[in-house]
Amino acid sequence: MPRAFTPTWFFFGDSLTLGVNDNRMPGGWVSRLALLGQEAGLYRFPPATFYNLGARRQSTADLARRWRQEVDCRQMPGMIPHLLFCTGVVDMAAPGGGQPLALDKSLFCLRDILAEAAPLAPTLIVSPPPVADPAVRRRIAELGAAQAALCAELGLPFADIHAALAASRGYMDDLSDGLHPGPEGCTIMAELLLAQTPVHDFLRTDMDEEEN
């Protein structure tokens, strides 16, 4: 007998969401968070489904252009979508060269995303994590604060882990290329996220709805 409901989480972001430096677990902090949530009893595998849709060097504008198609092409009967966005490091660091994106332009793109995402499914924004370069880290922190204000304006949950990660020697020391955490940093980020109430609530499901 088919399951009536399939709770499904979509994680959108750049290479930090993709987990490019985690050589122990494909999917980086997203995969680690998914496992921690199961261990905490927030959902069951199966039917819980997680899509890591991070893409290298993608800005908030890039996410705005593609996220809805990514969700739509994975639709299936009984799917209950949840949308998480962790974006902004590419905007502020410009790792492919060129100039950082102006903060107001980054926010404009995020506002567009949230205007469509929030009515569609539970939506959570995670602050962009810190990087090694102090000047870039300050720009990312400023963007994170602006993202938090936007979420407060829109009544949406926001998980701010930038300051905690920047203060974590384990995380910062694990940025071998200055941008991407390795296994230790991804574990630290996942643990910090699960400890936040907005993330815990975003991941929690009604177990009775998951039964056949």
Descriptors:
alpha/beta, 5 strands, 11 helices, globular, 212 residues, Rossmann fold, single chain, SGNH_hydro_sf, five-stranded parallel β-sheet, 50% helix
Describe the structure in brief.
This protein is α/β, with parallel strands linked by helices and 212 residues long. The protein has helices at 15-18, 28-39, 60-72, 89-93, 103-120, 134-154, 162-166, 169-173, 183-194, 197-203, 207-210; strands at residues 6-13, 49-54, 79-86, 123-126, 158-159. It has a 5-stranded parallel beta sheet, sandwiched between helices.
Describe the structure.
With 212 residues, the protein is of the alpha/beta class. It has a single domain (6-206), classed as 3-Layer(aba) Sandwich (Rossmann fold). Helices cover 50% and strands 13% of the residues. A five-stranded parallel sheet has the order 2-1-3-4-5, with helices on both faces. The mean pLDDT is 95.
Count of individual domains:
1
Outline, from the CA principal axes? globular
CATH top-level class: Alpha Beta
Strand content: 5-15%
Question: Looking at CATH, which topology would you report?
Answer: Rossmann fold
Please give the largest β-sheet: 5 strands, parallel
Distance between the terminal alpha carbons, to the nearest Å? Answer: 7 Å
| Rg result | 16 Å
Structural class label: alpha/beta
The count of helical stretches stands at: 11
What is the helix fraction of residues, given as a range? 40-55%
Order of helices and strands: EHHEHEHHEHEHHHHH
Strand order of the largest sheet: 2-1-3-4-5
pLDDT < 50 stretches: none
Average pLDDT, rounded to a whole number, is 95
CATH superfamily: SGNH hydrolase
CATH architectural group: 3-Layer(aba) Sandwich
The number of distinct β-strands equals: 5
